[in-house]
Write a structure and sequence with these properties.
The protein is of the alpha/beta class and about 300 residues long. Helices cover about 50% and strands about 5% of the residues. The N and C termini lie far apart (about 50 Å). The N terminus is likely disordered.
Amino acid sequence: MSHRSRAVGVLVAAGAALLTSIGGVAQAETGLPAPVAALLDSGSASLGSSAPVAPDAPRLTSVDNFRDIAGTGAGYVGTHGRHVNKGVFYRANAIVPNEADLATLAGLNLSTVYDLRTDDEVAQKQNVLPAGVAYKRIPILSGNINEMLGKIKAPEDAVTMMEDMNRSFVTGEVERAKFAELLTAMANTDGAQVFHCTAGKDRTGWTTALLLSLAGASDSTIMEDYLLTNEYAKDSIAKNTEGIKRAFGDAYLNYIPLVSVQASFLQAGLDQVDTTYGSMDKYLTDGLGLSPETIGKLKAKLLG
C-alpha cells in the first residue's frame, strides 16, 4: 500500500482524527494553556467550600491530548457556582503511552477506558493500558467517510465535512444510540474513567461538551475547552500537517482543517441541538433517551 493510500485510509477510519500513520506523537508542553486562566476560578468555590482542590491531570508526552474534562486549578465553574469535580472523567487521544506515561496513568487508579474508535482505527494504534483497567469499546463513526472525503476539493469542503459530522451526532439515530450507551455506562461505573477516540477531539470533544453541559458549565467554557485541543496537541498537529504534505502534495491544503479543531465544528452540532430539540436537556432526554436516574448520576459525579 502506498504512503498516500495509508494516509487516506487513516482519514477514512478516523474522520478528522490525526493521521496516526504519518508522523510521531508529539511532546506536549508542560505549561498551562493560556485560555484556561480565563475559565477557572482559582479561589474556593462560590458556595464557600474549603475542600482541597484535586491535582491537575498530568501532561503526558506520548498521549498529548490527555486531560481532565473539569479543567485545571479549581476546575470549571458549573451549576450554582460549584466547580466541576476533577479526577472523575478524563478525555484523551489514542492511549499508546511510553513507559513513563504508562506509570503515570497507573498512578491515577483508573477504573475504565471507553474506546470510541472503529476497528480500523484500533488496528492503527492498539491501546496500552495499566493493569486492572477495564476496557470497553463503543465505536462511533458518523456517515460515509469515503464519500465525504471524496467531496473535499478545497479547505472549505473539509470544514463543511467536520460541521456535518457534528450535526450528525444530533440527527443520526446510530450515533445518538452510541453516545447514550457511553453516557449510561459512565453514569453506572465507579472510579475514574477515560473516554477517547483517535485524536481526542471530535467524538471525544462532543462527549465532553455533553458532560460539561450536564454540569452547568457556560457556553463559552464548553467552547474554550473544546478548542484546547489545538494547544495541547499543537506539536502533533504540526507533524501530521507535514505528513499530509508528503502524502497529498499540492492538494494537502484541502485536508488541513481535518487535523485540528475550529469553533464552527462544535457550534454546528450545538446549533443542531437547538434546531432539532430546542435545548440540550431535550437532546439528552428525548434524543439520547437518557433516564432521569442516569442524568442524576452523571450530575452527582460531576458536581457531587
